[in-house]
Amino acid sequence: MPSEIRAAVCHEFNAPLSVETVLLREPGPGEVEVTLEAVAICHSDISYMEGAWGGALPAVYGHEAAGRVTALGPGVEGVGMGERVIATLIRACGACPSCASAMPVYCSGNAPLPPELSFPDGRALSKGLKCGAFAEKIVVHASQVAAVGEEVPATSACLLACGVPTGLGAVVNTARVRPGQSVVVIGCGGVGLNAVQGARLSGAARIVAMDLSEAKLEDARAFGATDALLATEEKPWRAVKAMTGGRGADHVFVSVGAIPAYDMAPRLLGPGGTLHAVGMPHSGATSAWEPVILAATGQGMRGSLMGEVVLARDVPWMVDLYAQGRLELDALVSRTWRLEEINAAIDDTRAGRARRNVIVF
What we know:
Elements (H helix, E strand, L loop, with lengths): L2 E7 L8 E7 L6 E10 L2 H7 L9 E2 L3 E9 L11 E4 L9 H4 L16 E2 L5 E4 L9 E5 L3 E3 L6 H4 L5 H13 L6 E5 L3 H13 L3 E6 L2 H10 L3 E4 L5 H8 L5 E6 L4 H6 L4 E9 L13 H7 L2 E4 L7 H14 L10 E4 L3 H9 L6 E4 L1
Helix pairs in contact: 4-5
């Protein structure tokens, strides 16, 4: 029998969400039901709610969640009833070339699943970002969850589902920053701060934080940045070169979906440096570079989706680093909100005032 749950429904792009009662079906083969304790608000959720990347409506968004397993579908192994888990948008078939290459974020082998959500009158309701986690419960494929244990509070654990691995993983998994290298992080919100943490943990010699906000630069210093630079400074690449012994950065991480940041970022690179695209602009937005400069300097560009995280490999060491006090999670949470306050929490996030706002159940 389906469960009645409360969820925040998006009926129209660029309109407030409506908290209402919907139906969630039981988990099928290979699926788990998770009763949520916390879900963070990510800018990707907001972009979808604004219609930036399309998608069917009405929909329930939310994808950065933590809770407890309360039902198992047939054939599920590796996760137990009552276990605290994170739930993420990464759904992996385990057999396609991407999964076989330890890159499940780019999985190409997933078959469609029957709809999980509906309105009480039977109308269809889309599950946004493969999670639909702005809700009391979710049903997801077992590959989308990872155990996090009891030591990490749910409000912090949920950040391990997206914001932390996106920033940290871009540095550790995608860029593979080495000790002694220089790093620039453009945008010091929730994702950017985790890129800063990743650079610190990787032993980067210089970690230059860039943002439009002095307050966010202070946050970046607290998370491990060695230098801070206002993005409004005239010709900031000169300052970056001065901070890096005249060479420029080995790695530049653009952690915001802002085209001006992408336009400027290549100029911060040194010879052989790489630009890493982490923040996602709206579909159709474009940036421009001079290819001759990249060719002449051996520079490169790489995308990084969800920090190219492998849940079973990466979540345990992140939890362990948290337990050791080496990975900061708690300070990433700006404020907690009730589900009924979700529109205010979204507005606060959109205004750039929060590291991460978290809805608690």
